[in-house]
Amino acid sequence: MLQYFGVFSVRYLRPALIVCSFAAALCLAGAAHALTRAELYQATVPVAESCEAAQPAAFQTAMKIVLVRVTGRTSAEEDPSLGPLIGNAHRYVQQCRRVAGKGLWVSFDGPAIERWLTQNGQPLWGHERPKTFVWLTAQTGPQSGTVVTADDTSELKIAVDAAAASRGLPLLWPSAADVQRNHLDYAGVNGTAPSVLAEIGRRMGGEGVLVGRAGNLSAIAGVRWIHLFQDRSSEYSGTLEGVNRAADLYAEMFAASGTLVPVDIEVAGVADVREYAMVQTYLESLTFISHVSVVALTGDTVRFRLATRGGSESLQRTLSLNGRLQPIAGGDSGTQRFQLRH
């Protein structure tokens, strides 16, 4: 319990939070399953010009790539409401350089783009993105095949990874050792129930799991996918359909829009100042939360007031994503409550 923690007023906790914040970031940021903000706002476009000679269209193309990723909508590049942002893409460029054999690498001002999107009522899917474990088999002969692993260099894996990168979807692939350790060769994966593969994938760090069966290892192979996430299970057909439809679902669940509203939550199990710092640093790192303050301390429970977009349901889904804050029964006032996992 917070035998000494509870006697302090909230204002005395801020210096301790500053001391603890770096350690907290290390402890919880790794658990947030997030792409960094910088990664979300970077794109490479295949043009021959130098950064100095690049035409506005090059930066507009890069901005379209970024907007598909951060709104979660594949239609974003053609959305007229995003036209002003795309048309002024050059104003948001922070870094630009040529990449040999690839074109121009462009890095945009992420916070400025986020402000524009939120001020104009557009959805924003931040760096809170589920990691998706992939079990993908491919037929290589009439009665034979292979399990696609992390070090695979086939056209199929390259295409799947590229699609995931364009949507900002973190993928986890099994290593050859993982496959061997779980006694899962080609026939084994194909003969194992998707729910069992999902459980193995979750043990290896995935929140969501994609199970795919491909006809070959080409970039246009026919693939039958099953996507499992929380209590949802969906089936798709198409080389990249599993990745794109998984991204669509995640964006629907975790992208936030609308004006800021205050939401109170309670976090129980906060044993000391270090854990308080962890929780507050984690909350402040979430894209759709713009402000975090402490309202009350009672025993080992801290009540936070958040300025957030997306509403209470979206907030609960995101806070539950990494498992560090487990939802528990709400209080008498209907306040969302969570238990800090140690």
| Assigned CATH class of the largest domain | Alpha Beta
Estimated share of beta-strand residues: 25-35%
Low-confidence stretches: 1-34
Q: Average pLDDT value?
A: 86
Structural class: alpha+beta
User: Helix coverage percent of residues?
Assistant: 25-40%
Return the string of H and E elements.
HHEHHEEHEEHEHHHEEEHEHEEHEE
Any idea what the shape is?
flat
Provide the CATH architecture of the largest domain: 3-Layer(aba) Sandwich
Largest sheet: 6 strands, mixed
Tell me the domain tally.
3
Number of DSSP helical runs: 12
The N- to C-terminal Cα distance equals 14 Å
Cα-based radius of gyration, to the nearest Å = 22 Å
Number of strands: 14
Output the CATH topology of the largest domain: Rossmann fold
